[in-house]
DNA sequence: CCATCTTTGTGCACGCGTTCACAAAGACAT
DNA sequence: ATGTCTTTGTGAACGCGTGCACAAAGATGG
């Protein structure tokens, strides 16, 4: 997953563990599917399987919510859907602004997942004057000069940043100054925000790198191939490093020591 | 973050904790930036600030790598960049296929983050015959009938799924059967894969819902405004629910009538 | 009304991850 | 050389999250 967090680490929100909160949307999705099939109740076992988690974990998660199931029967689907929706704050409307309408921003604007659950794309904002007024996914793009005004008028508290990394922090600062208190960041940068503002990041590149790590490990474990000989100091003394990382590399494809950003 | 994991839970890969692996790309990015500015060394304090983490955590992370810094001085930037790149497997070339070239798939194809670090878009695959041959981000889209052939020929081990949720599992199964062992899933579904296959998921909707949860909590904490008196209880007592969800909530944020024990 | 069977809710233990705090290592100046 | 100063590397404590295993709750059938 592309999970990045920058949460108040120790603040267990109202007794509900952060890990549980992160799973609630998963349960909700599974429950919604069941609801559409008019299934009246589910056992923790079934629902857990559908959500891809352990049933004991699921029961414990629900216990934090106070949602009660019925022993010997399971959970009432409709009731749980409502309870979780309410807990997540999805019973109200959340206007969202997307800043940076490039390829990604446009894709996000058209993403069905937004509209589906309480989230409404209130505005699309881009710094390029050529984009202004142009409709994307049916919504006209507005110029970033009006950012503050847009946020204020629509009472937007959630912002999505899909700009190039270089301007992400500046955009973030403006959003926060204008009143946004939750940010979903797609730009490959670490954003710094004042206390009270939540930032979650989605980073393509990081996810791929994590996969690559495991992939490499799998390859190295193969019986035929010798495990990475790395451990044996790669040469190059630390202190007086003059670099000249010149040319060493694994047995397979190599890459320059210094990689692009 | 949009992090979803489906990792071998207990398998601490070669002694490097999963949490550390997830941070390495972050360090790498910060280090690369320093490298471009020709900064020769950094202290754990500085680098930690740049990566947005605690310096003690950073030092411990590096200690797992065996990368040595120099006491009193710090870490050699170039050396670390190389070490981390190698550890993450970025010193080799990773061909990647993207399946599902809709808005999102197209955006991903054009995303710079892919090409920048050892990842190469080997192929774009879509089930729509109308897309076949059409170039997206400079790469011609291929039909999904040829999926197996493409994977085999290019030796692809990483696949990105950007299809609608409905077909994600089917696509996933085909990818895995064809030899892919790492999957980055953008479709809002839980994928089930055999052991040995890593899946990471990026889920827009889930990230937003998590933000909404915290946002709601912040709003509820406000002294002035009363918490949203949203939807009147959805009714629907489960089995024999008698809990009148009626009027709950304290003076501050509201809380479901039924709370955890 | 009682017995049986199913499924929840949770006490408990364990392991991972985070953080503190400090000794050791080295740079640098004298 | 010796002393001082900076910064690393890590032992140890703590807290969160996970999963087991079981008692309690309730449904169901006789």
From TrEMBL, chains A, B:
InterPro entries: CoA-bd, NAD(P)-bd_dom_sf, Rex_actinobacterial-type, Rex_DNA-bd_C_dom, Tscrpt_rep_Rex, WH-like_DNA-bd_sf, WH_DNA-bd_sf. Residues 26-65 bind DNA. Residues 217-261 are annotated as: Disordered. It is found in: Cytoplasm. Residues 227-240 have a biased composition (Low complexity). NAD(+) binds at residues 100-105. Keywords: Cytoplasm, DNA-binding, NAD, Repressor, Transcription, Transcription regulation. It comes from the Bacteria. Pfam families: CoA_binding, Put_DNA-bind_N. Residues 89-190 form the CoA-binding domain. Its main location: cytoplasm. Modulates transcription in response to changes in cellular NADH/NAD(+) redox state. Belongs to the transcriptional regulatory Rex family. Homodimer. This is Redox-sensing transcriptional repressor Rex. It comes from Streptomyces omiyaensis.
């Amino acid at each position: 997953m592309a999970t990045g967090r920058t949460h108040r680490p120790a603040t267990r929100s109202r007794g509900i563990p952060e890990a549980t909160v992160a799973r609630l949307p998963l349960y909700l999705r599974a429950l919604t599917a069941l609801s559409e099939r008019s299934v009246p109740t589910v056992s923790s076992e079934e629902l857990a399987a559908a959500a891809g988690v352990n049933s004991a974990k699921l029961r414990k998660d629900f216990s934090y919510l106070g949602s009660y199931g019925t022993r010997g029967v399971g959970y009432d689907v409709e009731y749980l859907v409502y309870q979780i929706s309410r807990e997540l704050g999805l019973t109200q409307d959340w206007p969202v602004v997307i800043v940076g309408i490039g390829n990604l921003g446009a894709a996000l604007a058209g993403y069905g997942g937004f509209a589906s659950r309480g989230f409404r794309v209130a505005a699309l904002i881009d710094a390029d004057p050529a984009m202004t007024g142009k409709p994307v996914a049916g919504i006209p793009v507005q110029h970033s000069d009006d950012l503050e005004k847009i946020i204020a008028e629509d009472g937007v508290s959630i912002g999505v940043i899909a700009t190039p990394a270089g301007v992400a922090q500046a955009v973030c600062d403006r959003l926060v100054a204008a009143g946004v208190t939750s940010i979903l960041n797609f730009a490959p940068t670490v954003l710094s925000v004042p206390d009270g503002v939540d930032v979650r990041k989605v980073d393509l590149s990081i996810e791929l790198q994590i996969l690559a790590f495991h992939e490499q490990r799998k390859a190295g474990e193969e019986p035929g191939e010798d495990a990475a000989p790395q451990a044996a100091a790669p040469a190059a003394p630390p202190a007086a490093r003059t670099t000249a990382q010149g040319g060493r590399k694994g047995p397979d494809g190599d890459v320059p020591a210094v990689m692009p950003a």
